[in-house]
Structure formats: structure tokens, C-alpha cells
Amino acid sequence: MSEIKVDKELDLSGLACPMPIVQVSKEIKTLAAGQILSARTTDPGALSDFPAWAETSGNEIVRVDEKGDGGATFYIKRVG
Amino acid sequence: MDNLNHLAEQVQALRKELDQAGQTGQEDKLSMILFSGDLDKALAAFIIATGAVAMGLEVVIFLTFWGTPLFRKSEGRALGKDLMSKMFGWMLPKGADKASLSQMHMAGAGTQMLKTLMTKKNVASLAEMITLAGQLGVKVYICEMSMNLMGFRREEMIAYPELQYAGVATFLAEAKKSKIQLFI
């Protein structure tokens, strides 16, 4: 898989619900359409919450790297 | 032919339903009544509210009855109240930090345990969630009648950015336009 060019990195480690989606929804607005935001989470709930958030807010998760600690790094493309 | 008629009827019924749906609940908005002053329920309400903003919804919370004291300041008192109002003032919690659990309160031990756990697990406190909601533009209406009944004055309430005082019609007008309505 080719490397994804990340425009902004976000570390949401240790944050609990609803903070990860609150933060990611704030940060994605600082990007231009087509740019990529990476977000590292440790909250296991984020694995289902991020796709639900992306679908509702109309953004696109281009890749999810699950980590061993229950968390993941999400690569989110700002759409529109 | 019968089948066709049946289908036509169904289409008619569906169209009617669609027309009615178009008149109400169109806005990407969440309207919530927070009736409870319990720590656990209020926490759920503000987690849903802030999460909803992240999902792109506009959020309105209507604080009524036991929910009203959640927005009291922790310090200070208003002078010149009658006896009943003073008694309500003494008996009801002074703000979000004083709210207790709806279950397992155990004379304060349970509530304290939960608060310790929340800090340990990095879950935001109710007061922090309320501050965050304010920053995110969650609008809060406090029920004017509850204020009046419990003898609360506006100067006893916290400085919240989008705080207004209103009655049931204000809530219903918001709720009617909202896609989601909750009662907590």
C-alpha cells in the first residue's frame, strides 16, 4: 500500500468519548478539501464512532491502521 | 389489475406521508429536555449534546425541574428570598459539581467513587462538559417556571454563552423543527 500524504496529525490518545469526535470534527474544518487528517486514538469506541461520524459529516476515512492497544490511526480525507 | 390498484394506493399513502414529513423535523437539529438533575443522566445528556455538534447537528437543551439547579453557581447567594425559596435553595445542589448519582449514590460514597474513576479514566467532568458545550455553541434554555417555582434568580446561574430563559412553547417550536428529540 502506498504511503498516504498526511497534511495534519492529531494525537487523541487517552481521550474518552465524546472527545475524539469533538476534536476531529473541529480539526477537519481547518483543512482544505482533499487534504488528509490523521488521528491516533486509544478509545476502542472510536472504531465504530469514527466511521459513523465520517458518514454523517460527509468526510471519508481512507485508511484505518488498528493498533494493539484497542486504538487506531485513522486517515480522514476532508470532502467538500 | 388488483395488484396495480393496490400498488397505486400504497404509492398514494407513501406520498402523503412524505408530504407530512416535509413539514416537520427537517433541520439537522437535536432538541433535548434535561429534566433530571442526576449526575449520571446529566453527563449522558452533555456527552450526547457535544457529540451531536461534532456530527454536524445544531443542539438545543431545555433545562427544566430538577435539571435547573445544574446551572447554579457554586458560590454566592441571592438576598431577599422568602422562606420557601430559601429552603429550596438549601436543599437543591449548587451546580453541576454537587450533582449526585441516580443510583449507587450511597450517601456520597458512590458518587465520589465514580468521580475518582472518571478522573482516572480521563472522562471529562460534568462541569467540563458544560463548558465544552458552551464553546461548541450548544444553546441552553432554562425553564422560567422552574426558576420561579424553586425561587432561583438569574444572578444565581452560571455565565453560559448561549443561556436564555424560556417556556414550553420555545422548546416545542425548536423540537418540531428538529430531526431528533430527547427527554432525559
Characterization of this structure:
The complex is a heterodimer of chains A (about 80) and B (about 180). Chain A contains 2 helices and 4 strands, in the order βαβαββ. With about 80 residues, chain A is an alpha+beta fold. Chain A starts with 7 loop residues before the first strand and ends with a strand. Chain A has a 4-stranded mixed sheet with strand order 1-2-4-3, covered by helices on one side. Chain A is globular, with a radius of gyration of 11 Å. Chain A has a single domain, classed as TusA-like domain (Translation Initiation Factor IF3, 2-Layer Sandwich), CATH 3.30.110. Chain B is of the alpha/beta class and about 180 residues long. Chain B has a single domain (about 25-184), classed as Hypothetical Protein Ychn, Chain: A (3-Layer(aba) Sandwich). Chain B has helices at about 1-25, 40-55, 85-90, 110-120, 125-135, 145-150, 170-175; strands spanning about 25-35, 60-65, 140-145, 165, 180-184. In chain B, strands 4-3-2-1-5 form a 5-stranded parallel sheet, with helices on both faces. In chain B, α2 runs parallel beside α5. Chain B is elongated, with a radius of gyration of 21 Å. The interface of A and B includes residues 14, 15, 18, 19 and 26 of A.
List the helices and strands and how they pair.
The complex is a heterodimer of chains A (80) and B (184).
Chain A lengths: L7 E5 L6 H10 L7 E6 L4 H12 L2 E7 L5 E6 L3
Parallel strand pairs in A: 1-2
Antiparallel strand pairs in A: 2-4, 3-4
Chain B lengths: L1 H22 L3 E8 L4 H16 L3 E6 L19 H9 L17 H12 L5 H10 L3 E5 H7 L12 E4 L1 H10 E6 L1
